[in-house]
Amino acid sequence: MHVPDGFINAPVSAATGALAATAVAVSLRGARRELAGTGQGGGGAERTAPLAGLVAAFIFAVQMLNFPVAAGTSGHLLGGALAAILVGPYTGVLCVSVVLLMQGVLFADGGLTALGVNITDMAIVTTVVAYALFRGLVKVLPRRRRSVTVASFVAALVSVPAAAVAFTGMYALGGTADVSIGKVFTAMVGVHVLIGMGEAVITALTVGAVMAVRPDLVYGARGLARPLELRTSPLTAPASAPASAPAPAAAAEPVPATAAKPVTPTPAAAPRRSVRKVWLAGLAAALVCAGGISYYASASPDGLEKVAHDQGIDKNTKKHATEDSPLAGYSVKDIGNARLAGGLAGVIGVGATLAVGTGVFVVLRRRKAEGAAPAAGVAGERA
Amino acid sequence: MGAGHAHKLYRHGHSPVHALPPHCKIAAVFCFVLIVVSTPREAVWAFGLYAVLIAAVAGVARIPAGFLLKRLLIEVPFVAFAVLMPFVAEGPRVQVGWLSLSVSGLWGAWNILAKGTLGVAASVLLASTTELRELLLGLQRLRMPPLLVQIASFMIRYGDVITDEMRRMRIARLSRGFEARGVRHWGVLAKSAGALFIRSYERGERVHLAMVSRGYTGTMPVLSDAAAGRAQWTRAALLPLSALAVCLLGWTL
């Protein structure tokens, strides 16, 4: 996806160049903060250059690691999402930008004047989108190792098509070729959804592998690690029983090494996240996605519909059985604004899915409860 | 880390182009590409003249044509895109043989091919006549933030180390009978990538500590700050100036 010279016109190239320069300047500041905090010693700003440089070298190397897909074909990692999750968004932007810069200057991969376009597209958009999604998901999902993997999967999955959308946007503003935006959009997003799938699987597996060995290195999961809890067996505890009185408070905070008093294991000391809050957040996210994003997406017909329309296939197709249903074609009838209708249909769809899903869940739960209850009930009747 | 780390892209020589200070060369190449990009695509002959200019510079630098052409292959993915363009673009169509091609699509394909190829050729010339370290020093003299230059230089310096580490992992996998054939083997490869990340990061920490123990405070000492003289700037400006003349002719004719 390295854009060569002459693909995007000069004004847009200059504008994206300015944007890229600003973003790199901002992330130079941010990276100092991100890289200073970890590890022993906790050095200052002078840690930035060696660490960011080595991470950039890692991204450069990992882009050469081939993942065979099927006979003959193989793909490789793009690395924006991975960098954001492993070392933080600022360092991620910085490292991917440096990799792109070196690829442009040394390997002539991506034009010199298109450097701004390339950095904006592949370093900034992927990293920022991936990290924002990742943080949001990690907040919403339960605090477990698995949810970090799931969050990185989704973040990487979305980040690649997001870059494709950004590229289409830049093309719409300053493309020199005369291909309609719809076609570019369909082709780019279609291909990159596929690429995103591979990227997502590889990123999730890689993050999982790092989490298993050095969870402290994964920047995105830094707040998630449980503070170490000092447990002693109850046999040795009684001697200092009075000292362990403030245990509930201590369990929630990181136990300082010097104050290593025996803390009796207190169940449920960690605040249990309320299920309702998670559920509501998920619902809100789904509604926003369905309503907001389809507001923009539904303006142009999707790939298959468009191809069908172009080729005149759709003249021969029979009318769909639910053509007259109020949600046919994913837009609500009798609402003039096509986009608004699409968004509304999305919201209604989420609502319906949710209702069905909750119904199934409630039924299952009741059956489970009933399975336990009869035993007691039967026993009661016998008596 | 000093000698022996010349990258494969660099071609050693003693030509006048090699002798130019790196920042003059970078500025010249950048201006040249900028001028090429802003040339109207209808001026077909102008691109021919640009190609002649590039060939002349390559001749002065004594870079063989085969070397240059082989490095141009990096552009192939976008060439594929450009070849597709006449078929998908809109507008009036023209009949070539049995194919119906879009006129504006043909122009677009030509535009991308010509400008992209010239841009790639110019950067290849730059990379093959300038050493890596000099390139980075040149970027620093062109007011790129020093921290960014340091990061880039660490990346270049340790790029080979990390790549070698990856190669050793691959050999270790191979010698244990592993062969990645499909999606099912991604788990193993991803674990390698994870291990590679941990090793790179930890190496970064060690490098930092080693540097701190040798008195590193966050800035690199400048060893040689040879500013370019007027004669050198003039020589470097020959390429973009002649390109500018061609470009102006292209706009007026």
CATH topology of the largest domain in chain A: Arp2/3 complex 21 kDa subunit ARPC3
- How many extended strands of chain B? 2
Radius of gyration of chain A: 27 Å
CATH class bucket of the largest domain in chain A: Mainly Alpha
- Count all strands of chain A and give the number: 2
Model regions low in confidence, pLDDT < 50 over at least 5 residues of chain A: 240-273, 295-323, 326-331, 374-383
Number of helices of chain B: 10
General shape of chain B? flat
Largest interface: A-B, 75 and 92 residues
Mean pLDDT of chain B: 85
What is the CATH-assigned architecture of the largest domain in chain A?
Orthogonal Bundle
Order of helices and strands of chain B: HHHHHEEHHHHH
Tell me the helix content of chain A.
55-70%
Helix content of chain B: 55-70%
Sketch the topology of chain A as an H/E string, one letter per element: HHEEHHHHHHHHH
Large-scale geometry of chain A: globular
What does the model show?
The complex is a heterodimer of chains A (383) and B (253). Chain A is built from eleven helices and two strands. Chain A has two domains: 10-224, Arp2/3 complex 21 kDa subunit ARPC3, CATH 1.10.1760.20; 275-315 and 325-377, no CATH class. In chain A, α1 packs across α4 (89-106), α2 crosses α4 (89-106) and α3 crosses α4. Helix content of chain A is 63%, strand content 2%. Chain A has 383 residues and is mainly alpha-helical. In chain A, β1 and β2 (73-76) form a beta hairpin. Chain B has two domains: 16-139 and 227-252, no CATH class; 145-212. Chain B is 69% helix and 3% strand. Chain B has ten helices and two strands, in the order αααααββααααα. A two-stranded antiparallel sheet of chain B has the order 1-2. In chain B, a hairpin with a 2-residue loop joins β1 and β2. Chain B starts with 15 loop residues before the first helix and ends with a helix. Mean pLDDT of chain B is 85; it is low at 1-5. At the A-B interface, α1, α2, β1, α4 and α7 of A face α2, α5, α6, α7 and α8 of B.
